[in-house]
Each structure stands twice: as C-alpha cells, then as structure tokens.
Amino acid sequence: MAAVLALFVAFKPRYADIQLSRRRPYSPKGSISVISRLSGATVAAVERGVGPGHGGPFGRDALSGAGLKSTPAEFVVLMLAGSLVLGTTGLMAQNIFMAILLAAMAPVGAWSLVAFRTGRRRAAFESQLSDMLMSISGSLRAGHGIAQSLHSTSVEMPAPMSEELARIVNEQRVGRNVSESMAEVAMRMQCEDFEWLSQAIEINREVGGDLAGVLDHVAHTVRERAQIKGQVRALAAEGKFSAYILIALPFFVAAFLHLTNPTYVGVLTESVLGWIFISGGVIMMAIGSFWISRMVKIVF
C-alpha cells in the first residue's frame, strides 16, 4: 500500500522538497516523510530510464503542449501507478482478462487526456489570437518596440496565450530571434495564423514599414477565418455526433447484454471461433472509426 501511495504522490516531489527546505532551511532531512523520499527515488529512477524525453506521446513537448507542468518521468510514474491499481482491482475480481483490460486503460486514458487537453489548449490559443493582435498593434502605436509589446500583451492576455508569449519574451532576452520563436510556437500550437504573424514581423524587420497597420490587416483576416471556421464546425457537428453514437453503440450493447444475460455473450469467449469473431469485429470497428473520422474532419 505504501508503494501505491508513493506512486500517486509522484507528481512534484522534488519541487515540494525544495520549497519545504526554503520554508524551513534548518529542518533535518529526517523530517521528510518516507513516502516523499520513496516517491522521489521512483521518479528519479524513471527519469534516468526515459532520459530527457522531449518526443513521444508523453514527452516534454507533448506535455507542454497540453499545458501539463509535470515532467515526463512524473507523468509515466503516475500512469504506471494507475495501471497497477486498476490491474490489482481486476485481480481481486479473480478475472485475469479484466485485470489486463483495466491495466491497459491507464495508458489509453493518459494518452486521451493529453490529446484532449492539447486540442482544447490549441483551440483556446486560436480564439485569443485576434485580441492578441489588437493588443500588440495598440502597444506599437503607443511607441513601444515589438519586444515590449509582446511582454505587455503576455501580462494582459489569459492562458494559454500569455504562457506562449512569455516563452517568446524569455527566449528573446537570451538572444534568440523573435520571429524564430514565434514560428516555433506556431508549429507547436499548429496555428497557421500565428505563423503569418511571425512572417509579418520578419518582413517588417527587413524592409521596414508600419507594422501596426500590417497587424490590423492580419487581425481582420484572422477574425474572418474564425467566423468561417465556426460556421463549418456548426454544419459538421451533426455528422460528428452521429459518428460518436455509431462508434459507441456496439460497446454499450455488448456491455448491456453482458450485464443482463452473461451466458448469452459468454459463448463468444468459450471457443476459438468466438475469439475470431471478436477480433474481426474489433478490426472492422477500428477501420470504420478511422473512415468516419476522416469523413467528418474538416481541414482548413
């Protein structure tokens, strides 16, 4: 039980220890709980195994894009803790198949969480772009430079725009080109409109001109594109909702039959032919889900 609790508190053990030492610099090390030391050692061991972890579905870049402050090692430890707890729950029910299924739900759920938060953060970033452009344009007209305008806008705007602009300002302070930092943000957030902004700033830096006026035109274009995207999403919402129902319906029907009449569904798991039917159904469901997702996905 202590090991499971240690894995659950493995999000920020190092930061907690640092802040604890700052508040009580003369407290002995023995005052730190055994659970905190065990969780810190677990995260350190996983971090040595996974390395820096910039890439991958649970890498630093993916977690940063999702707005998660945890390191890859901490996230992996929490995911393994979830698999351990869910798998143990399945074993307590004396069903090895359920134990494997529940244990696999933890990484699938973690990936779904990262993907969901990434999509929501990118949508919020895109919705804040027009206001950000107007704020930078007003700051430029007031006589500020582009770096000062980005800094003031990062203070005024909410997250995630403020976080990304603050990163650009910090990179500019250490000598990196502003347009390069903005292009990297556009790639990470998959925002074509923000890439236009970086190109406009780079062109203005080379040839000069009224950057505030250029940003006003970009903001106008961004607002029109956002309006068109909203209309397209509204028209495609019915197809997406129908796709969700069609994909989820077989699983709900199977679960309902298993609960109401277990022997009726249990026939499929008692023979090789039944497992072949289950495998074929899963494969066809995967193909159909992919096909439907391509049909209802509108690329702008």
Mind explaining what this structure looks like?
By secondary structure, the protein is mainly alpha-helical. It is built from 14 helices and no strands. Helix 3 crosses helix 5. 22% of the residues are buried. Residues 1-31 have low confidence and may be disordered.
Number of strands: 0
Instruction: Report the span from N to C terminus.
Output: 50 Å
What series of H and E elements makes up the topology? HHHHHHHHHHHHHH
Q: Cα-atom Rg, whole angstroms? A: 25 Å
Q: Pairing-aware structural class of the strands and helices?
A: mainly alpha
Task: List strands and helices in order, with pairings.
Layout: H1 2-8, H2 13-23, H3 34-50, H4 60-65, H5 72-92, H6 96-127, H7 129-141, H8 146-156, H9 161-173, H10 178-189, H11 192-207, H12 211-260, H13 262-266, H14 272-296
List descriptors:
300 residues; mainly alpha
In short:
With 300 residues, this protein is mainly alpha-helical.
